[in-house]
Amino acid sequence: MQTYDVILPAPMCRLGARFDGDALTQLDFLPLDTPISKQLDARAEPLACELAAYWSDPTHVFDLRFALAGTPFQQRVWQALRAIPPGQPTTYGALAKQLGTAARAVGQACGSNPLPILVPCHRVVAAHGLGGFMHAAAGAPLDVKTWLLAHEQHAPDHGDA
Questions:
Q1: Which position among 13, 49, 110, 121 bears the catalytic label?
Q2: CA 125 to CA 90: how far, in whole Å?
Q3: 23-30 and 14-20 strand pairing
């Protein structure tokens, strides 16, 4: 079993977090019955506060120190994901076209995202349906994706009207 520096509550699951120094490097969705951490250290407290703000307001912009380890292509995809506004999902195909690549490659990069929620890979869906999530096509990962999309569905649009 994976070890985590902290396990935090979330409305639909638990979140296991790992840090490298002060930088958040991994955030995993865990079953609801996973015990949460009783004490939060100086690295975990800001993460818990930022996540609480997001649970209250899906338009919350995260202000956390994090480090994303991935290939140059994955980094490009993850940067594009961070530009997708809450409540305005896009498709794998549309994102692939924007990046000049294939939808399947975008899907693989999304599935390899080590910091879901902060890098909102859940905002990318299939042309006809939900698509996958965390390299899964069914089960608990899609339940999490469905919850996150519903949470953001009524997010106010902060863009130009």
A1: 121
A2: 6
A3: antiparallel
